[in-house]
Design goal:
The protein contains four helices and two strands, in the order αββααα. It is mainly alpha-helical. It has one domain (3-80). A hairpin with a 5-residue loop joins strand 1 and strand 2.
């Protein structure tokens, strides 16, 4: 399995406000990551693994940025509290 696919299987642990605090990886995925790291120990393997991964990495970064921005917007909303109704 590719590094990008392995990293996409990470689950995030969040606090009560939805802020990411840790990651969780199932044991099978962790073992695959360790094997991939061992295989990438030589420069050739590393170059091959990342030769065409820029688009996938950019997509993962965009997903993370969107999740972060959503969390930040929710946090800001909670900090400000509810807006009073304009009855006039």
């Amino acid at each position: 399995m590719s590094l990008i696919k392995l990293l996409s299987q990470v689950e995030y642990l969040v606090d009560s406000n939805g802020n990411k605090k840790a990651v969780q990886i199932d044991l099978g995925t962790w073992r695959e990551i360790l094997e991939l790291i061992k295989d990438l120990a030589d420069d050739e393997g590393w170059d091959e693994a990342f030769a065409n991964s820029q688009d996938a990495l950019a997509e993962l970064a965009d997903e993370e940025r969107q999740a972060y921005e959503t969390t930040e917007a929710q946090d800001e909303h909670h900090r400000k509290g509810p807006k009073p109704l304009d009855m006039g």
